[in-house]
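> forwarded from #structure-qc
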């Protein structure tokens, strides 16, 4: 699960590096609102910061919850984290291909080149997470912890602690 921490850290750094894209998108969205005669309640900077901060918090919270359930031996969480890892591996594949394809951003913001380093590190770590999670020993760990939970609980009570919850 420590390797997933490296994945999350790399993705958080990449999200921060994508701030110029969020700002550019926010500017375009707010400009469209102005053209339609709507009130614009916030600036493009505030909207971009809010979207970036929300994305960072969402990634951190969802990852922490799923990792906690994997740590507790929940097989469904292992599979969900495996899907997250597979998604990041596919994202890495397309990001590496994009390095070799020149595209015109139409004057818009692009991700800085240094951010690609963290995207690659996160993708490679995701490969490691995917291999570890889908290994037979991890499935055995989840099965053993589930059996332990079943043996130590009866009618919602923990037998080892004298029936206390």
């Amino acid at each position: 699960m420590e390797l997933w921490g490296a994945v999350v850290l790399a993705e958080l750094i990449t999200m921060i590096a994508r701030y110029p894209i969020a700002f550019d998108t926010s500017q375009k969205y707010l400009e469209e609102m102005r053209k339609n005669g709507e009130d614009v309640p916030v600036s493009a900077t505030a909207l971009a910061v809010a979207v970036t901060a929300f994305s960072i918090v969402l990634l951190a919270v969802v990852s922490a919850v799923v990792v906690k359930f994997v740590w507790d031996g929940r097989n469904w969480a292992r599979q969900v984290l495996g899907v997250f890892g597979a998604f990041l591996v596919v994202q890495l594949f397309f990001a590496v291909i994009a390095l070799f394809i020149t595209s015109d951003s139409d004057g818009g913001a692009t991700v800085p080149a240094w951010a690609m380093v963290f995207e690659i590190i996160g993708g490679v770590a995701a490969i490691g997470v995917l291999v570890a999670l889908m290994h037979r020993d991890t499935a055995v760990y989840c099965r053993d912890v589930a059996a332990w939970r079943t043996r130590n609980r009866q009618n919602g009570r923990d037998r080892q602690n004298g029936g206390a919850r």
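QC bot note: Residues 44-71 form the longest helix (28 residues). The helical segments are 2-17, 19-35, 44-71, 75-99, 113-133, 136-152.
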